[in-house]
Amino acid sequence: MDPVGVAAAPAPAEAGPGPAWPSKCPWGAAKGAAMSCSLADVMSEQLAKELQLEEEEESAAFPERAAVAEGPFVTGENIDTSSDLMLAQMLQMEFDREYDAQLRREEKKFNGDSKVSISFENYRKVHPFDSDSSEDEVDWQDTRHDPYRADKPTTTPKKGFIGKGKDITTKHDEVVCGRKNTARMENFAPEFQVGDGIGMDLKLSNQVFNALKQHAYSEERRSARLHEKKEHSTAEKAVDPKTRLLLYKMVNSGMLETITGCISTGKESVVFHAYGGNTNEEDKVIPPECAIKVFKTTLNEFKNRDKYIKDDYRFKDRFSKLNPRKIIRMWAEKEMHNLTRMQNAGIPCPQVVILKKHVLVMSFIGQDQAPAPKLKDVKLSSEDMKKAYYQVLHMMQQLYKECNLVHADLSEYNMLWHEGKVVWLIDVSQSVEPTHPHGLEFLFRDCRNVSQFFQKGGVTEALNERELFNAVSNLNITADNEVDFQAEIEALEKMNEDHVQKHGKKVSAFPGDGDPPVCGE
């Protein structure tokens, strides 16, 4: 059979019978006659190779056309913007690009130069047709495998060894154990910096690793204790969260109108000024201005508190040196009881309003937020100084005989000159009874401080410390020098302590008529 032409030229209108075809194509003018080839040419392999080479050359000359042909790549030139859905997708894609860029900036800012980094990969919006991403933007920290990170040592199988014959390696191998110990250091607390031991191929022995592990554990516990101590202590300005809550409750209940600020700081407490409010109790009157004394709950600055409280029979059974907060509460309660005794005896001192744990609210000695000056800060005339001396002498005798107390820290720092005529006593939390094992020793120290201050102030009538001690206590110790005087005081304290242990605390207490203490018998 003869070959058939696949493409023939248009025949003339008059050729052969049949229907008459128009000479002009209804779809437009023909661009040109196509080359005709036989079926044998189409089936030949040589023609197929030539066509394949032409396609490859065309793809190399126009790569954009090939990329478009491979998949539906969306660009701004070939999008039909008449569709609302397509516009919404384009806007969403642009928003996702900006969101991913913002996440990258936040991630870079958050991680900084830290060795341990945080990845926001799970929150990113990744589109398969997003062409803005490049290989330069790949963050190695976000990949599962970090090519710059050393591989961890391989684990030993359950059988306990790898290899055969002479090449066998057990789990007790020195090199294997050293690398495992180095890898296990990463399980230490984040605060314990171990460095890049795996990258340096560091090999730690079991002894070194155990020492480091114990040290890391100790440091973690110490850090936790310091953090807890900082959260629950009142060393700095004495206001921790619990103390602040107590003050808030006092203000919310109406007992205090407002707290203005700090007026005094000391080794044992911090004093704040506040304006008094109203109370529902009819028998309690809150002064217009109050002083809030907050005792510090740390013993760093005043470590010998137990010396004043553990031998006081009023608190001896409740004393616990292992609990600082209990000591502070007892310390505040001790000052409240001492102030109450002094107030009942008519000694000028702050009036107790209320005690809440380690917060003591008292009347304010001063006016318009200005506290009364201490006796050491005020300049008095000779008459006022002499008047103040006799007031202090009378108050010491009242405190000893009527209140059955020794101030134990009496000096010009704890006496206020109020309204230009009266001496007020403050800070009596350390005050003890004369029957205390060191009560007479504390009294002699108070007499020395008072005598030296007023003698320097020009009071010629001021007694020396031994004369003042006898005038206050009525013990009439006759010693020529201070050493013998103190020796007799220690002997009386020893005698008094034995008497208290033999007869009990009730027998050793003062009667109400102001008789001398037991140690004078």
Automatic annotation (TrEMBL):
Protein known as: Serine/threonine-protein kinase RIO3
One GO-annotated biological process of the protein: innate immune response
SMART domains: RIO
Subunit structure: Interacts with CASP10. Interacts with IRF3; RIOK3 probably mediates the interaction of TBK1 with IRF3. Associated with 40S pre-ribosomal particles.
UniProt-recorded Gene Ontology molecular function terms: ATP binding; metal ion binding; protein serine/threonine kinase activity
GO cellular component terms listed in the entry, alphabetical order: cytoplasm
Chain intervals with Basic and acidic residues compositional bias: 141-152
Biased composition (Low complexity): 1-18
Membrane-spanning intervals of the chain: none
Species name: Nothoprocta pentlandii
CC cofactor: Mg(2+)
Top-level taxon in the UniProt lineage: Eukaryota
